[in-house]
Write a structure and sequence with these properties.
Helix content is 46%, strand content 18%. By secondary structure, it is α/β, with parallel strands linked by helices.
């Protein structure tokens, strides 16, 4: 038999009940060495059996057979070509056979040279079959090539209806090529992109405007959506009349996603670069400021913890996010809030301070949000409320941990939606106000015990600012003490030029549970009592008597333990310990010697 790709010899089946005709044709084939192999059958039944056993390239059918006619065999041939052989006068039958699929017919009339003409007809069929085999092989090679291309190659008629689609249709459209054919090209894309594609195809059909790289979203049969690049050209007949369209569809989803990701990365890099430049500029300004003074928006200190706080204050001031200030009582939470306000774009608008713990529970709502006339007994006129007073500026809510859950809910609504309602007035109002909160409480602990709503906690503490206690920044105590002494002295009309070294040492050693406020109060008392321009131990308030006794020798045990604590905190490095205490190394050595205190295994000397 022949291979699918070649056709060297034709396989021919002769169906004829005349034994002499069969033998004559067999001898003719053998004598002339014709390029085909001949198999014979004498009846309809035998012909059907032969067709079931082998494949043939050509079937010669005699009309009259012993058990039927050649037409009975014709129905079993499928696509196999056949030549009908008729007797004289049977041409009408032969024509009917050709209508039913026969390739040609021959007459057995001896005068027409039946045996002479038959080889020529068979050779024609052989040429046709060879052309069909070559065409199939060519189509198969083309199909194989198209299957390796990333593009869906298509052909469509003038109206854009697809007549051919390459195998890649399965990957791009989730449809087989057969399912694609018959559909309009424009129906393959989503509704939002269909109009652009239709316009482009109509222009192409009318004037030949080439479609190149038209991006459309393709709706796949599985519900997925892909981004495709459509290319198309018009092809014409010999007269220049448009016949249809040919083109390609390429899936560029990943390329487009990568391009978008690249653009987003570039935009993010540019934004980050700008933010970094702004941060560096802020750091430069802050460094320059700190290099000139220990004062930052009323906050005094050069300790690293304070420098870090100044930087965060500038960052907070550059945005409008909710800021929460946490610190022990007397540490300067209001000063920090005021610094954020003064450095922000709201600096020229009001800065309103509310101490939540100082307002009775029954009045807190109307105090914050305002009330309408007649809202309750005693409401004789409309009241704006603190939110209204702070319009355009900043509302600082100190001791926020003392608010009830009801007020937390109302404030949460304002923080999220910028709307609120006055007491006795259901009409919603808006206010452009920045909220800064503060407390000395441990807010996460309040959330855990149910005193504070978790959503309210997260909303007010978007940008937390932690103020170090005075105990955590002892090196700043001399700066603060000198600042307060000078300022209070001027206010009292007294000249206070300094603080004695012994008093300053006691200040540095003291833990200051009341923080900066306690230091200021102590110095205010001392400045009132002081009889000359220097603050001495005799000028300090009574509760500092313990420190006086310690330094005078009455409390040597307390002083010894305080020194040991400072030295252990600094790994017994005397230079750092002396700096933390605000005294010299020699003074520290004298104190150690007086207390009989030394590092285990080391000699006590000023140089050690």
């Amino acid at each position: 038999m022949n291979s699918p790709d070649t056709l060297d010899r034709l396989q021919v089946l002769l169906v004829d009940d005349d034994r002499i005709d069969r033998m004559t044709l067999e001898e003719s084939v053998a004598n002339q060495r014709l390029p085909y192999d001949l198999t014979t059958a004498a009846s309809v039944q035998e012909a059907i059996e032969r067709l079931g056993d082998a494949q043939f390239d050509l079937v010669l059918l005699d009309y009259r057979l012993s058990d039927g006619t050649g037409l009975d065999v014709l129905d079993h041939l499928g696509s196999t070509p056949s030549i009908f052989i008729t007797g004289s006068g049977d041409e009408s039958v032969a024509v009917d056979a050709m209508k039913r699929g026969a390739y040609d017919y021959l007459s057995k009339d001896p005068d027409r040279g039946y045996l002479t003409v038959l080889p020529v007809v068979v050779e024609n069929v052989l040429a046709r079959r060879r052309a069909e085999v070559a065409l199939r092989a060519s189509e198969e090679r083309l199909r194989s090539i198209l299957g390796t291309l990333p593009d869906l190659i298509f052909e469509a008629d003038r109206e854009g209806r697809l007549t051919f689609a390459s195998p890649v249709a399965r990957e791009i459209l989730a449809l087989s090529p057969a399912d694609v054919c018959g559909r309009c090209l424009a129906d393959l894309v989503v509704d939002a992109d269909r109009g652009r594609l239709v316009d482009a195809l109509e222009a192409l059909a009318e004037n030949g405007s080439e479609v190149r790289g038209l991006l459309c979203r393709v709706a796949r049969a599985d519900g997925d959506e892909r981004i495709a690049s459509v290319n198309a050209r018009r092809y014409d007949d010999a007269d220049g009349t448009a016949i249809g369209l040919r083109g390609s569809i390429r899936d560029v989803t990943e390329l487009e996603r990568a391009a978008r990701a690249l653009e987003e990365s570039r935009a993010l890099a540019a934004r980050t670069s700008r933010e970094l430049a702004d941060a560096r500029a802020q750091a430069t300004r802050l460094s320059a400021h700190l290099g000139r003074s220990s004062d930052f928006q009323g906050l005094i200190g050069r300790h690293p913890k304070m420098r870090a706080l100044y930087e965060k204050i500038e960052l907070a001031a550059s945005t409008d996010v909710a800021v929460h200030v946490h610190g022990a009582s007397g540490s300067g939470k209001e000063l920090v809030a005021h610094a954020v306000h003064n450095l922000s774009g709201r600096r020229d608008a009001p800065f309103v301070v509310v101490n939540c713990s100082a307002i009775p529970e029954t009045l807190i709502e109307s105090t914050l949000f305002g009330h309408a006339k007649g809202a309750f007994t005693g409401a004789t006129a409309d009241a704006v409320g603190y939110l209204g007073r702070a319009a355009g500026g900043t509302l600082f809510l100190d001791e926020i941990g003392d608010l009830s859950p009801l007020i937390q809910v109302k404030l949460l609504r304002f923080l999220q939606e910028r709307t609120f309602e006055r007491v006795g007035d259901p009409a919603p109002r808006t206010a452009d106000v920045r909220i800064i909160t503060a407390t000395h409480h441990d807010l996460p602990a309040l959330v855990r015990d149910g005193t504070m709503r978790e959503d309210f906690y997260y909303r007010i503490s978007v940008f937390p600012l932690e103020i170090p206690s005075l105990k955590q920044r002892r090196s700043d105590i001399p700066l603060l003490a000198a600042f307060f002494a000078e300022r209070i002295g001027k206010r009292l009309g007294k000249t206070v030029t300094g603080i004695s070294a012994a008093v300053m040492e006691s200040f540095v050693e003291y833990d200051w549970p009341g923080n900066v406020r306690e230091l200021e109060n102590v110095l205010e008392y001392a400045c009132v009592v002081a009889q000359d321009d220097t603050v001495e131990f005799a000028d300090l308030p009574p509760h500092f008597g313990g420190i006086r006794r310690a330094l005078d020798g009455d409390g040597a045990t307390d002083s010894r333990e305080q020194l040991r604590e400072v030295l252990e905190r600094h790994g017994w490095n005397r230079t750092r310990a002396a700096q933390a205490l605000g005294i010299s190394r020699v003074t520290l050595w004298k104190r150690l010697k007086a207390c009989g205190l030394s590092e285990p295994g080391a000699e006590s000397s000023p140089e050690s």
